[in-house]
Amino acid sequence: MRCPWPALRLAKAMREAGAVTLLADDPAAPREVAALCADQGWQLEMPDKGHFSVRR
Fold first, then answer.
1. Domain span at residue 10?
2. pLDDT tens across 5-43, in order?
3. Is 51 helix (H, G, I), strand (E, B) or coil?
4. How many domains does the structure of the chain reveal?
5. pTM score, two decimals?
6. Does residue 56 contact residue 42 with C-beta atoms inside 8 Å?
7. How far apart are the first and last CA of the chain?
8. Does position 1 have pLDDT exceeding 60, yes or no?
9. Which stretches are annotated as coiled coil (predicted)?
10. Which single residue of 17, 38, 43, 51 has CA 20 to 30 Å from 31?
């Protein structure tokens, strides 16, 4: 997904889920997703480039 969609879609998905896996090719996604997770207190793992695992 392209900017700002990864962070927006993650925020929407996390409203209903306790964990989400996100795939994004946007070069800004790592920074935006990390900032969102830090702001919300979510745990973030980035096992591979473009792959994000987020948990409450």
1. 5-55
2. 899 999 999 999 999 999 999 999 999 999 999 999 999
3. strand
4. 1
5. 0.88
6. yes
7. 22
8. no
9. none
10. 17
Angle between helices 5-16 and 29-40 (to 10 degrees): 30
At residue 9's C-alpha, the angle toward residues 38 and 46, to 5°, is 50
Token couple for 40: 């919300």
Looking up tokens 């409450």 gives 56
Phi (first) and psi of residue 50, to 5 degrees: 90, -5
C-alpha–C-alpha distance, residues 37 and 10, integer Å? 9
Bond prior to 4 in cis (omega within 30° of 0): yes
Compute the average pLDDT of residues 43-55.
Answer: 96
The confidence score (pLDDT) of residue 47 equals 93
Q: Residue 14's CB: how many other CB atoms inside 10 A?
A: 19
